[in-house]
Specification:
There is one protein chain. The protein is α+β, with helices and mostly antiparallel strands. The chain has a single domain, classed as Double-stranded beta-helix. The protein is 24% helix and 24% strand. It has helices spanning 27-39, 52-59, 69-72, 102-107, 150-155, 159-165, 174-179, 188-193, 227-241; strands spanning 5-9, 13-16, 42-45, 85-88, 124-133, 145-149, 169-172, 197-200, 202-204, 211-213, 219-222, 247-250, 257-261, 265-269, 279-286. It has a seven-stranded mixed β-sheet with strand order 1-2-3-13-5-15-4, with helices on one face. It has a three-stranded antiparallel β-sheet with strand order 12-6-14. The longest helix has 15 residues, at 227-241. The model has no long low-confidence stretch (mean pLDDT 95).
Length: 296
C-alpha cells in the first residue's frame, strides 16, 4: 500500500492521511509509513488518541525504544512507562513546575537547535511526539516545534565545503549544550553516565544515498582541530542549516502525532506560557550502530 500525504514543506514535512494509530497495523502499513518518512523526514498524523502503551507499541514497530536521561534517573516519575518521554512542564503530581525547577531548566536546552541523543555512542533514529494537553495561545508563543532539513542544507553548500567537511568527526556532549543556556547543575555520577561521543559531521541516507549534515547543540567541537576553530565551523554550519528556507514550523493541535527522523533533521521547541499545563509524550527509536561505522 502507499500512504496518502499532503506536503507541508517541500521535501521536508508532510501531513499523512488519517490512520488510527491506536489500532494494530499490518506490516504493509508500517512499511508505507517508513517509506513516507524516507521521503518526508517530518510526518504529521492528526487527530490521534493514544494511551502511553499504544504510543509505545506503535513506536516499537519501527525499532527498539530508547529510555531517555530523565527516565533513567532514580525516583518517582509522572509517567509509568520508561520508554515514554515526559515532554511537559508538569511535575510528578501533575502540577506546573516552577520557573526555577531543575528539571524545567534542564529541559530548556530543547529550545536550542538539536538532534536527539546525539551525545550517545549509538544515537537515535525516529522521534514521535504526541500532543496530550496544550496551553492556550499567549504572548509568550504557542510552543511550536521547528524542524530544519539537514539534507537540503548539505546540498546547498559549495562543492569545496562539502569535500572539506565530509570526513570530519564532531564530539557531542549533552552537558555542553546545557551549559550554553547557563545550566550546569549536574551531579558527577550523571556526568559520568553520559560521557561525550564522537559522531560523523556528514551522514549518508541508507536508502536514498543522499548526504546530510549531522549537527546539534550537543556538538561541542571538531575532533583533531583546535577547539576554537571547530566551534566556529559549527557556528557557521548551524547558521547555514537553520535559514528560513530550510525550516518547517509545526503549530500543534490536540491529538497531533509528529514523527521525525533525527538523522536528517534538527529541531527545537519554541516558548509558550509556562504557567499553563503543556503535556506532550515522546517515544524514540534507537539506531543499530555508531555513525562512525557509516560510509562517508
Amino acid at each position: 500500500m502507499s500512504l496518502e500525504t499532503r506536503e507541508l514543506h517541500p521535501g521536508l514535512a508532510a501531513e499523512a492521511g488519517f490512520l488510527d494509530l491506536s489500532q494494530p497495523l499490518d506490516p504493509d502499513t508500517i512499511a508505507a509509513i517508513q517509506t513516507a518518512i524516507d521521503a518526508y523526514p517530518v510526518l504529521v498524523f492528526r487527530s490521534q488518541s493514544l494511551t502511553d502503551a499504544q504510543l509505545r507499541d506503535f513506536a516499537a514497530r519501527f525499532g527498539p525504544l530508547e529510555i531517555g536521561r530523565s527516565a533513567a534517573r532514580p525516583g518517582r516519575r509522572r509517567l509509568a512507562i520508561p520508554q515514554i518521554g515526559d515532554i511537559s512542564n508538569l511535575d510528578v503530581d501533575n502540577k506546573v513546575r516552577a520557573l526555577d525547577d531543575r528539571r524545567r531548566l534542564d529541559g530548556l536546552g530543547n529550545r536550542l537547535w538539536h538532534t536527539d541523543a546525539s551525545y550517545m555512542p549509538v544515537p537515535v533514529v525516529l522521534g514521535m511526539l504526541h500532543a496530550v494537553t496544550l496551553p492556550p495561545a499567549s504572548p509568550f508563543g504557542n510552543g511550536e516545534t521547528e524542524f530544519a532539513d539537514m539534507r537540503a542544507a548539505y546540498d546547498a553548500l559549495p562543492a569545496e565545503t562539502k569535500a572539506a567537511i565530509d570526513p570530519l568527526i564532531a564530539e557531542h556532549d549533552v552537558f555542553w549544550s546545557r551549559a550554553q543556556i547557563g545550566f550546569t547543575d549536574f551531579p558527577q555520577p550523571e556526568r559520568d553516565q553520559y560521557p561525550p561521543s564522537p559522531q560523523r559531521l556528514v551522514r549518508r541516507h541508507p536508502v536514498t544515498g543522499q548526504k546530510s549534515l549531522y549537527l546539534s547543540a550537543h556538538a561541542s567541537h571538531i575532533k583533531g582541530w583546535p577547539i576554537a576553530d571547530g566551534r566556529l565551523l559549527l557556528v557557521d554550519l548551524n547558521a547555514h542549516a537553520t535559514q528560513t528556507r530550510f525550516i518547517y514550523s509545526h503549530t500543534w493541535r490536540l491529538g497531533d502525532l509528529v514523527i521525525w527522523d533525527n538523522r536528517w533533521t534538527m529541531h527545537r521547541g519554541r516558548p509558550h506560557d509556562e504557567h499553563k499545563p503543556r503535556d506532550l509524550r515522546r517515544a524514540t527509536t534507537l539506531d543499530t550502530g555508531s555513525t562512525l561505522n557509516e560510509a562517508a
